[in-house]
């Protein structure tokens, strides 16, 4: 397969490949040292639009432009474990409102750009082949289309330490499920299997374990052959009818900051346990910085005690 790396030497946490024959840009999350949404990774997701602009989006020939952007992960068994919980604890301990706001805005800047496809004639796709928790699940939901392999776990554990997912979960879930069902999912604090979320309507397409990339490529090939123009048009219709505005994401993120600064010591002890679990999962996985083209291992990476906290 012919791929053209995009400024690979300057991308430390996000591997980007322009698969020209598929008209697709593949973006593989590769954050270090832990598979979470740290500030460097968020910055690279936000700045992806400048790289996309160099890939022919201004060319007149549709066949020379990218039409899809796929977000996946380089870490087998893990899509993303969510927010930088260690940073959360540090900023909360120091009562650093500005620091929390900076992090929250980086999260919603990234989510918003993905949700509106960088204001370009593109469709964004999340390919979830491993555990997606907290901000990892929010990040996946920001895409226009969500594909997940059977058996993967997704969840929003923030309620377990008396907080809520404030970086887009309510906005994206309520568009897919309605407000009441979105709140039920968020307040459950449980780990959901991909099959359950597909039945609810959270996940668009289910794939068999290890077949996620093939399913995405087949979907793209089918859409490219049959109806590329209608796909783009329906994308615009969806945004016009039920948009997720930046102002909405920003207001919710600031509510999250207020709530984070109100956490009590008991809540922070639970947060510490989740930080420890993130670190333990990373240590146990022992995956090199760049794991290429390996199928996701069918391993449970749910946080220890996730459902019982």
Task: Describe the secondary structure blueprint for this structure.
Blueprint lengths: L3 E2 L8 E6 L4 E6 L9 H8 L1 H5 L15 E6 L4 E3 L4 H9 L3 H19 L7 E6 L2 E3 L1 H7 L3 E5 L3 E3 L13 H9 L1 H10 L2 E3 H7 L4 E3 L4 H15 L1 H14 L4 H15 L4 H21 L24
Parallel strand pairs: 3-4, 4-6, 5-7, 6-8, 7-9, 8-11
Antiparallel strand pairs: 1-2, 2-3, 9-10
Helix pairs in contact: 1-4, 4-5, 4-11, 6-7
Describe this structure in words.
This protein is α/β, with parallel strands linked by helices and 309 residues long. 45% of the residues lie in helices and 15% in strands. The protein is built from twelve helices and eleven strands. Strand 2 (14-19) and strand 3 (24-29) form a beta hairpin. Helix 4 runs antiparallel to helix 11. The termini are far apart. The model is unreliable at 5-10 and 286-309 (pLDDT under 50).
Number of helical segments with 4 or more residues: 12
Identify low-pLDDT runs: 5-10, 286-309
Query: In percent terms, what proportion of residues is strand?
Result: 5-15%
Largest sheet: 7 strands, mixed
* Cross-sheet strand order for the largest sheet: 1-2-3-4-6-8-11
Q: How much helix, percentage-wise, in residues?
A: 40-55%
Q: Can you tell me the overall shape?
A: globular
